## 1
Amino acid sequence: MKICTASLAIIFACLFALSPTLAAEVDVRDDGTFVRDLADVVSDEQEAELERWLAELEQKTGAQLKALTVLTTGDEDIFAFAQRTAETWALGGRKEDDGVLIVLAVQDRKVRIQTGYGIEPILPDSWCGTQSRDVATRYFRSGDYSGGLTELSLRAANRIAKAKGVQLVGVPAPRHFAKQGGEKGNRFWSLIMLAVIFFIVMATRRRPPGSGPGSRGGWWIAPTSTWGGGGRSFGGGGGFGGGGSFGGGGGFGGGGGGASW
């Protein structure tokens, strides 16, 4: 009897020790809306406006952007939480991988923009980080979570629409735009790379046939891309129209950026 009691005590102790870990993972179901305000920090008016604007964005561009607020992501880092949730929701087109998930964790004081393969050239990691930090400073730090989430969503939506060559009706321009130094830096290094390639090509043309490395008659230069971001996957299969939609596709590679305050 004593052995049985001791065994039960050990089992309950183990379950008690494991219970915080088991409860730490926060799971959020995709209910088909564009805004899931589980932290209850977005005003009804702004939530309704975001629903209309993000539905129009998807209808006109195919890109699917959703916003999620939670009180906390638990013991899970916001990056891992956003990555896992985005994979579960499978936002964007199945082939285009053009999904975006914005996660705001109020008590953790963190925000994260998670992007996919197809949308990362439009919303590169540096841009996501810069805009997140700017909105966190202007809005979240003072407790304006509703205004901040709306502003960050508008910045992303307007940038996507502009890149796709469409105009969103009734969608206001963002109040502010953080200057993106990273894009200027990318253009600078792109010009440097093009100049290097140009001089290599000119130098190889002066060589006699067969004198360079490789096969007969000269050097071969592999095509190189210096624009956009790679290596990020964000799943697919979104619908169109108002009132929200469900995703239906693929994987994620961790693209995006965030901030804390």
Note: The longest strand covers residues 64-70.
## 2
Amino acid sequence: MALKIVKGSIDRMFDKNLQDLVRGIRNHKEDEAKYISTCIDEIKQELKQDNIAVKANAVCKLTYLQMLGYDVSWAAFNIVEVMSSSKFTYKVSCSQLQLQSVDAVLITTIINSVSLPLVTQDLSSPNQYDTGVALTGLSCFVTPDLARDLASDIMTLMSHTKPYIRKKAVLIMYKVFLKYPESLRPAFPRLKEKLEDPDPGVQSAAVNVICELARRNPKNYLSLAPLFFKLMTSSTNNWVLIKIIKLFGALTPLEPRLGKKLIEPLTNLIHRALDLLYGMVSKKNLMEIVKKLMLHVDKAEGTTYRDELLTKIIDICSQSNYQYITNFEWYISILVELTRLEGTRHGHLIASQMLDVAIRVKAIRVFAVAQMATLLDNGHLLTGNMQRNGICEVLYAAAWICGEFSEHLEDPMQTLEAMLRPKVATLPGHIQAVYVQNAAKLFATVLRKQEGTTDSLAAQETSQLLIDRLPLFVQSANLEVQERASCILQLVKYIQKLQQKEVEVAEEVTALFAGELNPVAPKAQKKVPVPDGLDLDAWINEPPSESESEDEKPKAIFTKEEPKHTRPRHTEVDEKELARRREARKQEQANNPFYIKTSPSSQKVHYLKLEEERRQKERSERKKKEKKKKREKHGRGRRADSGPESEEDITPAHHVDIVTEEMPENALPSDDDDKDPNDPHKALDIDLDKYV
């Protein structure tokens, strides 16, 4: 007997375990079916042995093969035999196998002979994990007879002291209901109690079971609507919320009043989901996320929700300086598609994004100009929404981009005519002003092209076009539109006179708009360095002395003082008299024992000295901080250069060069201005290395 045990232990050393099976399948991709067939033959031989450990190892491999789609019903009796073992790990391996496809006569025989006594024994085990394994395994091979015999025991476990057992008992009851529907009526009160269970896992299990039951017959669960509404407004479990929403979707046709109650909580859930999207975005999934959001934008019925989606799309795409965008042509197309939304109040936001991308991403300007020219040609479709921040604000960006980057236009003359249409006069004043200003830029581009050809009359016709169309803008009620139109009209009239004399003026007109307009950093003004020799802390005018401030009396500016009859008006006193009175007053104060004497130096002079010392100290501390931050920045730069590359390094569709915001020359490198003086965490900025 001892030799037999030793021999079995030695044989086990050379048996294939689950890890060997998985590794072998991966190494035999070309003849996987043949290899698995060989493994199944080996498993059949292992199941014939008397050693329970060998059988348990074989069952583990059968579990993996069943996951791959292979039939393991031929080993049903051996699986139940291993499940009868007292060792917990063996039971766990068997509990994962599905035996629903086993022949009904065979499974009934197995259950009556082995399973029912074993499951009953484990359900009453003091070890909660043995009970849990029994419940898990029961869900895989439960039959109508087994459900009928064990329904009362499982209902008792629904009130177990351990949440682990209660959760599994609630979940297995759904399988019991399917096999033995008569158990639903006595089990329903306890199932309803589990919806208010203090353990969130048990509560989630009860919600899942009731939601699955409600799919078959939602009318039976209409009475639970108040309880589910309470759960939806108080629970933080996203999975539970999804299940409850599905349940309400089935109950709302039966009780229409539920729809009104669901508006606010559903809106909050949608906003939470949109907020989560902001942190989920990457270069790989950005386009897919925006595509899904655009579908919701098209289906949205209310303008508020649609505007919320629009804002979220732009926030997601523009976050971190367009970090996740690899194809800016796609982003421009998305912005143009958003202009087709009716009733939106975020036209200014779309326009600002168009301007920002066209200015800062040079590689996209050709595509952006073509799209903006199309918007200007179809501008009459966007002028219907004239409200504040309406979609007509997009025409502001379109006109500016076509004018500033007019060299990329295929047909600048057509765009110029579109910008001078009479319908433009109905747009808001600030948009008309941009139209007029950029029409002048387009005029310069058209002149340069026309003067390069042999047709000299074309340039004069273009000038005449502006002379005919601009008077409409000169009569505008907006002062800025009037001023710009008047100046440009006079300039064009002068150019027309020169053209009649056959003088080429294209170069001079183009020079008026030479140079690029790059974005300026918001804090550029604060970063302007102080010129040498300028002391901003010095007094511009010396403060008046104490005596002069006391003697001088402020004169009334807006009121006339009425003369007092009791006292005659005094005449102005000369400097000598003032000095004499001042000395007399000081002498009187010095001889008065009840007067508190001041220090020999004047209080004002003393204050000035203290103020000067304080400012010098602040300047020295500021210089020390600047030097320290310079050293830290250089150190961080060296460390960043040596770091690993991003795992999400996706090649962009074309070379992208984002123009940085302009700063003044010799700008200060200090970031002191970026710090919030009201930051509550500023008090924690303590040097822990200093001695107490």
Note: Residues 142-261 form a domain with the Leucine-rich Repeat Variant fold (CATH 1.25.10.10).
## 3
Amino acid sequence: MWPFKRKAPETRSMTIDEFLSLAGASNTKSGEHVSPSTAEGLPAVMNAVTVISEAVASMPCYLYRVQHQNGKESREWLSDHPVDYLLNECPNDCQTP
């Protein structure tokens, strides 16, 4: 479509745990491989992830305009901007009444 362009495929660097597992080594004292998916299989880890993600999701999201004047930076809250409405009130008809 006109304003949208295909983005380049995302590339990520390897974590130290991923690198060590490819090399056949382990980064844990027990020697067991621990990945994000295996860690989330533990109830304590999954509950911690849930608590943190729900807390972040409940935080308000504000839209600001940053202005630089006389070497100072100031922010202006754009409460009447259409994007602020999308972020905080109604992203689409299916998700928010």
Note: Residues 61-97 form one domain.
## 4
Amino acid sequence: FLGVMSGPLVRSSYRAGRLWATAMRKKGREIPAHLEHIAHIAEGIQDSGTTRQEARTLLAHHATA
């Protein structure tokens, strides 16, 4: 593992998934096909800034999926 995704900066499994996908991309590692949805969501919120914006992006993604 690149690291343990826990603690005060990781408040949910959603945020942990986003951090994992970001780390995988930065290391140039392939994201398995069954986890590509995590990477897709992470791309949409990577630079969103706030939790409220992250939640809005996640809800919008699920509404169109």
Note: The chain is about 60% helix and 0% strand.
